[in-house]
Amino acid sequence: MIRLIFLLVGAHQLKSRWLFLAFLGLCWIALGMAILYDIASDGRLSVPLDTLAILLVVEGLVEIVAAMIVGLRIYWPGIWKGLGFIFIAFLVFDLPWDNNFLASVLFGAAFLGDGIFRIASSLVVRGTKWRREIIFGVIEIALSMLIFSNWPFHHHIGVPFCFALLLSTWGISLLMMARQIKLMSDNASVCVLPIFTSRSLRPWREVAYYHPPFPQQPPKTPLQALVWTPVGSASAVVTERRRVVDRYIAAVDKDGVISTGHIALQLLPDLYISHNPFNYIDRDSANFRALLRAGEENDVPGRFFASMEEEIVDWSPPDQQVLFTRYNEQALRNFWQVFSMDTTYNLTSRNCSSTAIQALDVAIEGVMGRCSLPMMRLLLDPNFWMMGLLRGRAEEMTWTPGLALDYVRLLQRVIEPQYSRAWHKRVREAYTVRKSLIKKEIRLKKGQKFTQSDSHEK
């Protein structure tokens, strides 16, 4: 989460606020320690969690009310989002009759599932720090066992304990990053910070380029993220569907050929970012697992297509598209001029998806730097939390076109929201949408009556 906040705020804005970031890190550490002390003194913590629960209930009710005003058939996702907020509030709220048992079970299950996923993906991908990831996975599994076993802490303090550890960890990360930002050179990208480079699956190679400040005026041409999904790009019909695997990993057609999909960025008229292997990689079921290793032994020569038209002739047209109207065009061009000098391709650690996401990071860095209270706005946005969760999973395993598609969709909702985040403004916008729908329905009915009367006259 901290890395995403820094990316969206940008290095130019952060350099002038490094002292504030250090102070904020100290405050988070102090709050985490205070929560731990409160738990140790009487074994309970209710006020901070109850406050969070009340905010979640209000957020959920606003979503439900807005959905009911617009119309349940039109805005039914708002109902589910509101119910989700209320359910989370129920888990967080300190109810005397359940002692946070259900919340503790969910926290324990989350630690257990994340630990198993981290270990499994590290063993398969074998990135540069795969041993460290396995250790973290073992620690998460151990924490889940402590929560399930009621030792040494009772399960009713599991949520406050995890919340305190999370705050303390964020505080330490903020302190480290504040120091790194202070030492950064001017016109450098926030992506060169160790907290970003340490997440790479392969040895980090810095792409030295000039990163100008984020422009005040949006570019005239939108930046397009073009996606070929695994199912949509399969050479033959996919008969046996596995929804999650087909979307996020690969699809297998009726001939047994594996299709992983593709993603590219396009900025008309002359910039096209599409990373491909120079020669076709055999992805049949027999050797596909060996190709997933992120090491340099799987590096192959790559190439960059010059345009989408050239790629369509070579393969097929994309079946998904996401547009960005706010981005740093000059930074993206400077980055790509340097990055494209190395065409090395790796199916796991330097593929089409990782290249596109890295370029997109450069393009949107600092997009929220001039917003008022950007950190607060991001932390209160559910799409931002989902985006952080998705990015964490992708960086632990590898970026795939399916993961990249969901990520860029969430990113678009965060940096280019269609609706206000303020509670009263959302209700007002719901009324406006409702009125426009009613007017549209009246116009349609009038048009139908006019058509019917005209047909009767004839």
Overview features:
2 domains, four-stranded antiparallel beta sheet, alpha+beta, transmembrane, two-stranded antiparallel ribbon, endopeptidase fold (from Nostoc punctiforme), 458 residues, transmembrane helix, 7% strand, Membrane protein, membrane
Using the CA coordinates, give the radius of gyration.
25 Å
Topology-level CATH name of the largest domain: endopeptidase fold (from Nostoc punctiforme)
Secondary structure category: alpha+beta
Poorly predicted runs are none
Order of helices and strands: HHHHHHHHHEHEEEEEHEHEHHHHHH
How many H/I helices? 18
Mean pLDDT: 78
Instruction: Give the overall shape.
Output: globular
CATH class descriptor name of the largest domain: Alpha Beta
Largest sheet: 4 strands, antiparallel
Named at the architecture level, the CATH assignment of the largest domain is Alpha-Beta Complex
Instruction: Please state roughly what percent of the residues sit in beta strands, choosing from under 5%, 5-15%, 15-25%, 25-35%, 35-45% or over 45%.
Output: 5-15%
Count of strand segments: 8
Helix content: 55-70%
Count of individual domains:
2
Numbering strands along the chain, what is their spatial order in the largest sheet?
5-4-1-8
What this model shows, in words?
- This protein has 18 helices and eight strands.
- It is α+β, with helices and mostly antiparallel strands and 458 residues long.
- The protein is globular, with a radius of gyration of 25 Å.
- The chain has a four-stranded antiparallel sheet with strand order 5-4-1-8, with helices on one face. The protein has a two-stranded antiparallel ribbon with strand order 2-3.
